[in-house]
Amino acid sequence: MKAVYYFENGGPEVMQYGDLPDPEVGPKTVLIAVEWVSIEGGDLLNRLVTPPPETPFVPGYQAAGTVLAVGSEVTRFKEGDKVIGFDWHGSHAELFAVPEHYTYPVPEGLDMRQAATIPVPFGTAHDSLFQFGQMQPGEFVLVQGAAGGVGLAAVQLASQAGAVVIGTASSRKRLERIVPFGLHHGIDYRTEDIAARCKEITGGKGIDLILDLAGGQGKNALIGAIRPHGRYAVIGAATGSLPSFGFFELIRKAMHVYGISFGREMHTERAHALLADIARRMVEGNLQMPIDAEFDLSDAVAAHRHVAEGHPFGRVLMKVGR
Fold this sequence. Notes:
Subcellular location: Cytoplasm
Organism: Novosphingobium mathurense
Protein name: NADPH:quinone reductase
CATH superfamily of the largest domain: Medium-chain alcohol dehydrogenases, catalytic domain
GO molecular function: oxidoreductase activity; RNA binding; zinc ion binding
CATH topology of the largest domain: Quinone Oxidoreductase, Chain A, domain 1
Keywords: Acetylation, Cytoplasm, NADP, RNA-binding
């Protein structure tokens, strides 16, 4: 198979494109002929700092395609099924072998490009808002970094569930693009005072739930924006940094801080049901993920560089074909 791989950590230039042996199909494995790869923030972070456990190492969490073969103990899928696959590596290739419990059906009528974007962005956003964030209708939700994949998923899910959604982005133009997805108030974090604007928007109450997708950048302003007993979700580490909290910061606002890692949940029946519901809502036209750019798999270096440097709106995909 053709695949993208690397031997050592570094920038996009460490990746190579060439031939590797086809992956083996274990008894509980689904082999996917990949059509579209969604580049996730963790793909970039792993390439930069996580030593590859084996080399050559094929990166990538997430892809959509057609089942080519299944293991002897697989019961949910058969050859020819359209599916989404997730694993901690391996999606940047023509063939992606994933455990059955990390494989999700694509319903009829769902575009495969949209399907490829579902698990990490929408699952992470949903858990941040509801499973752990306990969001209620009418609450004020602040999405720090609302123009990325998880941010846009969160804006849609929160607004459709009755929240007042406030989002931050790096320009007024980017904020205007988020409005059709359910954004009620936008804050340009480069030119506006986040805490002051949130106080104004909430009538002095403060934010009920903050989703921090920026690795703690602007943390002090976010703490200033949150209400007493508010909730603060730390989501992922794709920026390469995470916020740290002193006890006084937590006590001063009596705030609740929790971390989100949806990947640890994705094998569960709950996650399968959640992702099936997201896919259904996509088919119905109620949810979508903007595709910022598309690259061929052979152009993975350029694709990763665009994700890292191009401030993409939504997700960046790679097209794969044998």
